[in-house]
Amino acid sequence: MTVLLMRLAGPLQSWGASSRFTRRETESMPTKSGVIGMIAAALGIGRGESLDRFKGLRFGARADQPGTLLRYYQTARNERGVMMPLSNRYYLQDAVFLVGLEGDDAGQLEDYRQALRSPYYPIFLGRRSCPPDGPIQTWISEESLEDALRHAPWRASEWYQHKALRNEAMFPERCFARIVVEPRAGEQVEDGFVDALADEPVSFDPRRREWRPRRIVRLSGDTKPEPTVGEPSAAPVSPTAVDATETGGSVFDDDAIFNAVADAEGAES
């Protein structure tokens, strides 16, 4: 089996699986239908076209940076100025996930990977108001879906990794990531609670959207992914003390800019 891994990150994400009408909720992790919809958009597949090419793919997700829940109270008027129904919409803010699709056709998964690098249609993290923070980072793994998610390095933002590692003694759970996968068809799961979600896309046609239920299970024992940042320092280091030529990048990468602002405020006081 081959697994296509994708890093999903952005200011806002919203992955609905059951919400309707004036309350639009989000799941705590990306949904299979949302990720397949994103890939379909990248491939240029129309909403009315068949989704048969995605049959048989197994989906899983890892919460590298869970984010926080945001409620947005939305008001709107139509083109005639008539007030539309008020709605509550929920989003995940500042979250980062690693998701995987497992299949037996490596060439097909590579096609999806290339499409995400140069998408035909704009892609979003669940809703149109949720663009990703840049091009979707992807990797190909020859491990099983479970092992690929367990063994992949930590994909959380650098500032989050630094903060979690610095405070690991007090909040060790922040250095661990929960994994939810779709069991194989017919597989009897003995370890873990199995739930069902109406999240297997059958049709994205606006006239007859359809989803089938699929099973999901949280793997026992959250994984501790390998950090992709250096060891945390006892105190933040001013970016002026770091030579960009030594680090191979800008001194304003990630949270360094926040340290620069803090240093400036301290000098003024």
From TrEMBL:
Transmembrane segments: none annotated. Residues 219-251 are annotated as: Disordered. CDD domains: Cas5_I-E. The keyword rRNA-binding does not apply. InterPro entries: CRISPR-assoc_prot_Cas5, CRISPR-assoc_prot_Cas5_N, CRISPR-assoc_prot_CasD. Keywords: Antiviral defense. It comes from the Bacteria. This is CRISPR-associated protein Cas5 family. It comes from Bifidobacterium callimiconis.
